[in-house]
Design goal:
The chain has 241 residues and is of the alpha/beta class. 42% of the residues lie in helices and 15% in strands. Strands 3-4-2-1-5-6 form a 6-stranded parallel beta sheet, with helices on both faces. Strand 3, helix 4 and strand 4 form a beta-alpha-beta unit. The structure holds 3-methylbut-3-enyl trihydrogen diphosphate (2 copies) and magnesium ion (MG).
Length: 241
């Protein structure tokens, strides 16, 4: 397996799915799968750093995930908080900048606190932007952008003709980040589940049966290799590319 170091994606986004089924298949409760999922997150971040990947977005909690049983939701929030607290030193050491996308104000106050302080303490780091999608929904994000833009038009600060694709992108939670080149979903489902609806318009999609807790360094390298074997045409013909 030979990766082309000149063709590493600028941004990989991952729908980390399959934790619950992974645990249940082993006779464990679902939260055990989420715990195992945190280990996989650490390994994938390490690989991302080794590869020199600039941006990694991880879908950790969707706007729809509030509909899960309450103990699972609180278990996930606790894991998130513990993860952020325990990984701060590693983020500082490995030059990782944390960022979050989603309706962050809707998260529990204690999670918001560690999230804000981790973002603040890692803000000057440059090697990898680790972008966590938390209480994230693509439709919610677009709605939020539309409201902001509409308010500017309503105040007379913006002409509707001045609303461009770039302006819309600037009002998304991902403002300033490149669109994902590669979007991976683990766990066997082939759907977006409300993830990066605007930004993924030209992402290469990669679906794998592997459950997130089993998704290791080799799996990520395989996904990038598959990406490198694709021809991205952006509407052109193969001859033009
Ligand atoms: C993904 O794993 C993690 C989150 C959604 C937080 P799931 O918990 O959805 O695992 P499955 O799909 O039930 O196996
Ligand atoms: C998507 O997984 C959300 C995250 C990975 C955080 P889900 O397991 O919630 O997706 P659906 O409900 O099966 O589409
Ligand atoms: Mg799932």
């Amino acid at each position: 397996m030979q990766l082309d170091p000149a063709n590493i994606p600028k941004h990989i986004a991952i729908i980390m799915d399959g934790n619950g089924r992974w645990a249940q298949a082993r006779g464990h409760i679902r939260i055990m799968g989420h715990k195992a999922g945190v280990k996989a997150v650490k390994a994938i971040i390490e690989t991302a750093r080794e590869l020199g990947l600039p941006v990694l977005t991880l879908y950790a909690f969707s706007t729809e995930n509030w509909n899960r049983p309450q103990d699972e939701v609180s278990g996930l929030m606790n894991l998130l908080k513990n993860y952020l607290q325990s990984e701060l030193d590693a983020m500082l050491k490995n030059d990782i900048r944390l960022r979050a996308i989603g309706d962050i104000n809707g998260l529990p106050a204690d999670v918001q606190d560690v999230l804000h302080s981790t973002i603040e303490r890692t803000r000057h780091n440059k090697a990898l932007t680790l972008n966590l999608a938390l209480n994230y929904g693509g439709r919610n994000e677009l709605l939020h952008a539309i409201r902001e833009i509409a308010a500017q038009v309503g105040r007379g600060d913006l002409q509707s003709e001045a609303i461009t694709e770039e302006l819309v992108a600037d009002h998304l939670y991902t403002s300033g980040l490149p669109d994902p080149d590669l979007l991976i979903r683990t766990g066997g489902e082939s759907r977006l589940s409300n993830f990066l609806l605007w930004q993924a318009s030209y992402a290469e999609l990669y679906f794998t049966e592997t459950a997130w807790p089993d998704f290791d360094k080799t799996c990520l390298l395989e996904a990038i290799l598959a990406y490198q074997q694709r021809q991205r045409r952006f509407g052109r013909t193969g001859e033009q590319v």
